[in-house]
Amino acid sequence: MPKFKHGISVKKEAPANFLTDPLEGRSTLRPANVLVYGWVGEKHACVDLTGVSPLVELTTGDFTVGQAALKSASSKVAKHERACSNNQHAFIPFVFDTFGFLAPDAVNILKRVQRVMHSNVVSP
């Protein structure tokens, strides 16, 4: 039976209180679909999960695999990264398209989770 040393600590739909607009008294930006504790050094990471259709790019000219996902990831970073950084959090867009393309940050997250899982399973 395998034994586990440690894992990745997360919270789904975590409130990001530093993104609350004081005038409105409510969160206007919600990047933390998943909050990963201690992901980057001692910083927690706000992970924004986004799925996009690559077909939206068909009307804008040449079709390029992954273009819609990469554009969405870039837009998410522009919108949320500064607020997260100003509050000592990392921001990671986990963006994929419905044809299966994963943006680079999504691939990096999955590779890291795989490494952690692999290193945590100790054979008897």
UniProtKB/TrEMBL annotation:
Protein's name according to its UniProt entry: Auxilin-like protein
Protein species of origin: Trifolium medium
